[in-house]
Design a protein that fits this description.
It contains five helices and seven strands, in the order αβββαβααββαβ. By secondary structure, it is α/β, with parallel strands linked by helices. The strands form three sheets. The chain has a three-stranded parallel β-sheet with strand order 1-4-7, with no helix packed on it. Strands 2-3 form a two-stranded antiparallel sheet. A hairpin with a 7-residue loop joins β2 and β3. It is elongated.
């Protein structure tokens, strides 16, 4: 099920709770996890990864979702596409870094070193979640890709 996080909806929390109640009531609470997807642009800051932080207006929408997922031990689904970071900032985000083909470390953030953008993007999202009270959440990459010419 997809809950639209970019559309303000005060009933979102109640809808998710009602669906979760129905799943548990059917005896499937340990088999089915209710989650939703978000997109990487929800981050206001993604560089350095440890500085990851949500846009304030998006945080307002995502906060109750983070609480719901944390309370129900469900992952947050994240759509992340290194392509867009490269296309929007080709001078700062090399093609090799975006395509997992960099021959060496590109970004150092404290004790962590990144040879590909995908890992840095995920860690930025984890950092933002930690700051928003969702540090215990797992992330599942629900969508990623690179456009083709064909």
């Amino acid at each position: 099920m997809k809950l639209l996080l970019d559309v303000p909806n005060p009933a979102l929390e109640h809808v998710a709770a009602d669906i979760r109640t129905a799943i548990v009531g059917a005896g499937l609470g340990n088999q089915i996890k209710l989650s939703t997807a978000t997109f990487f642009a929800a981050l206001k800051v993604s560089y350095l990864p440890s500085h990851g932080d949500f846009h304030p207006e998006y945080q307002q929408l995502l906060g109750p979702v983070i609480n719901f997922l944390r309370d129900n031990q469900a992952p947050l689904l994240v759509n992340t596409s290194p392509y867009f970071s490269h296309i929007e900032n080709p001078g700062q985000v090399s093609l090799d870094y975006a395509l997992f083909t960099s021959p060496s470390i590109v970004v150092t953030d404290g004790s962590l070193q990144y040879q590909n953008l995908f890992d840095a993007m995920l860690d930025a999202f984890y950092s933002a979640l930690e700051k928003a009270g969702g540090g215990s959440l797992d992330i599942v990459v629900s969508e990623s890709g690179w456009p083709s010419d064909k």
